[in-house]
Amino acid sequence: MGTRILQTLKDDPVAAAFAPFQPATVSDAMYALGLKDSAMDPIVRLVTGSKLLGRARTIGRTPITSNAGQAEMAGDYGFAIQQVIDGCKAGSVIVIATQGIASNANWGGNMAHRASHLGAVGMVTDGALRDVEEMEGYGLTVFAQGASVRAGQHRFATTIANEPVICGGVYVRPEDIILGDRDGVIVIPPEHAEDIAKKSAELLRIEKEMQAFMDEGASLYEAVMKYKVR
After folding, report:
1. Which one of 4, 77, 112, 205 has the fewest CB atoms closer than 10 angstroms to its CB?
2. What InterPro entries does the annotation carry (predicted)?
3. Percent of the chain residues past pLDDT 70, beyond the cut
């Protein structure tokens, strides 16, 4: 998986620098650097695939009401979700914010089909998706709150297209670095990426030394006291 990620991000060394790390390590690194917590809420879970690393392309969707639909909420955005997907490139991660509402799917097979052809590597939503069995065939790693057979069409309006959104309780901007695995998803601000990658590498090195120390017979208490982790 690491090799495939590096190949996909060969023209993006800033994002590719995070290929060796788990989101948990990056979260610890950001905490150590005094940066704001950007881990998504645990409702956003891995549905298919394994590790995800790429750059965000964002979509914000809002449930329609009895008196307002797409035309009233954002008439110019009727096909914005298709346009955001059509703008994907190698290493893109589509982030679809639905205010945590997962009653209807906002991602499906046709979207995945198009995104995969353009080099997208995955999708993250705090809502629901459908056509789950198709996702692995497209090579996409997908995180969501769950799945729903109900289509989002005519039930949600697109109100944000490639502008900042709040997904899984976290502020996400276009081109933010998205890193995810079975533990969850973290959003990495590019302006701090170099420092975060360096600190992540340091923490990973310390963790390996700590485990080697325990392999030699040290107790967990002794290892924690020696390496002063966290």
Report:
1. 205
2. RraA/RraA-like (IPR005493), RraA/RraA-like_sf (IPR036704)
3. 97
> What are 58's two structure tokens?
């964002």
What backbone phi and psi angles, to 5 degrees, belong to 158?
Answer: -80, 120
**Which residue reads 């392309």 in tokens?**
57
Strands (E), the chain: 45-48, 52-63, 92-97, 122-125, 128-129, 141-144, 146-147, 156-161, 165-167, 170-172, 177-181, 184-188
Number of neighbours of residue 70 by Cβ within 10 angstroms? 20
Domain map (residue ranges) of the chain: 2-20+35-189
Provide the pairing of β-strand 52-63 with 92-97: parallel
- pLDDT exceeds 60 at position 1: no
Three-state DSSP at 99 gives: coil
| Sequence-ordered list of residues with C-beta below 8 angstroms from that of 17, at least 6 positions apart, any chain | 193, 194, 197
pTM of the entire predicted model: 0.94
Integer Cα distance of 69 and 78 in angstroms:
10
From 70, 95, 219, 93, select the one nearest 161 (Cα to Cα): 95
Q: Where are the alpha helices (DSSP H) in 136-184?
A: none
Quote the tokens at residue 187.
């959003």
Mean pLDDT across the stretch 169-185? 98
